[in-house]
């Protein structure tokens, strides 16, 4: 057993900006490690330090070692003397931040392991066999996934070409007028809620630099019915999956929820005070500008590997639009076509969706975004978006009037009285959704790598070969704005040989190779 102060969501109240960001990041992984530990169990002690801000635990090292294996996490060490035991647990890819004074002397002398990291953190150096840094990359897709990727690569010193077939960036699913971002809460914490929680934290951190693309109006997630409300109340009473800090989320009864939203809600819900509404197209443009990427629009391309380089070749004519040592497919549903892979290779399906655009003057009192079974969000153009439909395929499955009725019906279920509102049209887009609803982000394995390979049973992801110099970020589903940024950080870190920001279990959960058809004996 090692005594240490772990980052928990409470730590998001820490005053320094660096700690604020990193604390949110680490919360998901560490809370999950701690969650199964019954607080009353032998060996587990909980003690709050300061005004409810930090908790100290004694916990089994084994749990933490498993979760952090090869992944990224951060630990606050109360006691620098415990650095040696932490080094053994977290090597090779963890950062360590010391509360108070770092260990005396030069940490490099401590076995050469602790090295200064960014933001005053101390980083354990990565594996010496890590791939060399790349200098240039081609990104296919100028939606929000491509824009996040270009931005994160540029931050790591990589020059980027971004190519898209449309006339302007963010013309696919990312043309959405207003996207809600908020962490998801579930009594049984799973990969989806962990990734949205960590992704949301990273997104807020990014939006500090692009305030014009974000309305931090708060989001109310309304319970679907009385049974769901009762379930949420019980979970909060029991502290499941962990005690939620109030500045992160607050379970709010119906009257308080009505007061916050300005809507006649039928039930209470989770209030996410830091959540809000992003303007995806504006953000994508700003990220591309900030990245300094060379952006080529109106170019439909395929990626091919030739002479040790990735070439983006025009579909019509075959000329080379750009080439580089590395490539990223950020092309949503078209990832298979861009990479010339079989249609179901990445387990993606299209889910068409329509959002009804209502006259916003009919919702003068609405003060924030509301979500749940249906949702309502204010856009910049004088609309309130109410939605959204889920229609299988890339084309509408019902008429526009039926889609609108469906949206209004879902919205009405959140309310006791539905206000009369003038319908002004709709937004339509196609989500790219993976079979398990998790996104795909990381190194890509193409069919050529699997040819002639036979495995005993389903191989572990780490045993699958990857295609040299090729990464993907697609299948962002309905949450591209909430988790796209952290996934782009993951991809960019992997490409440049940095330790990834995702805990190992989440990196596996989003690995593009997880659906690859393999031959087994
Ligand atoms: C109705 C609806 C509501 C939604 N609401 C929310 C919400 O509230 N919050 C949220 O976070 N998310 C929401 N989403 C999801 C979000 O919009 C997506 O997750 C996100 O925009 C996906 O971004 P992307 O860059 O992966 O895809 P896209 O924006 O579709 O970008 C992919 C790009 O790749 C390009 N491309 C493809 N093939 C080629 C090729 N061969 N050559 C060149 N370029 C190519 C395309 O032209 C396109 O521009 C919603 C989606 C829909 C449809």
From TrEMBL:
GO MF annotation: an example: oxidoreductase activity, acting on the CH-NH group of donors
BP-aspect Gene Ontology terms: methylation; tRNA processing
Family matches, as InterPro entries: FAD-dep_OxRdtase, FAD/NAD-bd_sf, tRNA_S-uridine_synth_MnmC_C
Keyword annotations of the record: Cytoplasm, FAD, Flavoprotein, Methyltransferase, Multifunctional enzyme, Oxidoreductase, S-adenosyl-L-methionine, Transferase, tRNA processing
Keyword tRNA processing: yes
GO cellular component, one term: cytoplasm
Pfam families: DAO
Gene3D superfamilies the record matches: D-Amino Acid Oxidase, subunit A, domain 2 (3.30.9.10), FAD/NAD(P)-binding domain (3.50.50.60)
Start and end residues of each FAD dependent oxidoreductase domain: 137-493
UniProt KW Transferase keyword: yes
Residues of the signal peptide: none
Domain of life per record: Bacteria
Protein name per Swiss-Prot or TrEMBL: tRNA U-34 5-methylaminomethyl-2-thiouridine biosynthesis protein MnmC
């Amino acid at each position: 057993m090692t005594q240490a102060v772990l980052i928990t969501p409470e730590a998001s109240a820490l005053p320094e900006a660096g700690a604020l960001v990193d604390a949110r990041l680490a919360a998901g992984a560490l809370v999950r490690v701690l969650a199964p530990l019954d607080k009353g169990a032998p060996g587990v002690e909980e003690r709050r330090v300061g005004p409810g801000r930090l908790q100290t635990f004694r916990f089994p090292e084994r749990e933490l070692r498993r979760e952090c294996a090869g992944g990224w996490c951060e630990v606050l060490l109360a006691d620098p003397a415990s650095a040696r035991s932490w080094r053994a647990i977290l090597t090779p890819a963890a950062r360590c931040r010391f509360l108070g004074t770092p260990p005396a002397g030069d940490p490099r002398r401590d076995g050469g392991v602790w090295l200064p990291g960014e933001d005053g953190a101390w980083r354990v150096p990565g594996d010496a066999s890590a791939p060399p840094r790349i200098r240039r990359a081609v990104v296919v897709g100028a939606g929000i996934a491509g824009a996040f990727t270009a931005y994160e690569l540029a931050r790591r010193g990589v020059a980027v070409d971004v190519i898209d077939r449309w006339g302007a960036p963010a013309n696919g699913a990312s043309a959405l007028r207003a996207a809600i971002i908020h962490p998801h809460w579930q009594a049984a914490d799973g990969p989806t809620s962990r990734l949205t929680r960590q992704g949301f934290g990273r997104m807020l951190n990014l939006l500090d630099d692009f305030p014009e693309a974000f309305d931090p109006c708060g989001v109310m997630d309304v319970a679907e019915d009385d049974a769901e409300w009762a379930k949420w109340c019980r979970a909060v009473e029991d502290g499941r999956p962990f005690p939620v800090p109030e500045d992160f989320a607050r379970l709010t009864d119906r009257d308080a929820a009505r007061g916050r939203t300005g809507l006649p809600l039928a039930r209470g819900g989770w209030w996410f005070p830091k959540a809000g509404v992003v303007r995806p197209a504006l953000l994508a443009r700003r990220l591309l500008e900030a990245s300094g990427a060379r952006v080529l629009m109106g170019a439909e391309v395929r990626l091919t590997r030739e002479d040790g380089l990735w070439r983006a070749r025009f579909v019509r004519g075959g000329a080379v639009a750009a080439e580089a040592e590395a490539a990223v497919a950020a092309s949503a549903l078209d990832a298979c076509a861009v990479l010339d892979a079989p249609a179901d290779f990445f387990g993606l399906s299209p889910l068409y969706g329509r959002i009804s655009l209502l006259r916003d003057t009919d919702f003068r009192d609405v003060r924030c975004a509301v979500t749940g079974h249906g949702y309502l969000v204010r856009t910049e153009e004088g609309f309130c978006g109410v939605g959204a439909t889920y229609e299988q395929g890339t084309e509408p499955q019902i008429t526009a009037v039926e889609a609108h009725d469906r949206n209004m019906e879902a919205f009405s279920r959140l309310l006791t009285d539905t206000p009369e509102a003038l319908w002004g049209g709709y937004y339509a887009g196609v989500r790219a959704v993976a079979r398990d609803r998790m996104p795909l982000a990381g190194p890509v394995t193409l069919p050529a790598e699997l040819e002639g390979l036979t495995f005993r049973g389903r191989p572990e992801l780490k045993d699958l070969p990857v295609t040299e110099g090729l990464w993907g970020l697609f299948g962002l589903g309905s949450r591209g704005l909430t988790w796209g940024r952290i996934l782009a950080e993951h991809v960019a870190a992997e490409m440049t040989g940095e330790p990834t920001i995702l805990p190992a279990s989440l990196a596996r959960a989003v690995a593009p190779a997880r659906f690859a058809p393999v031959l087994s004996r």
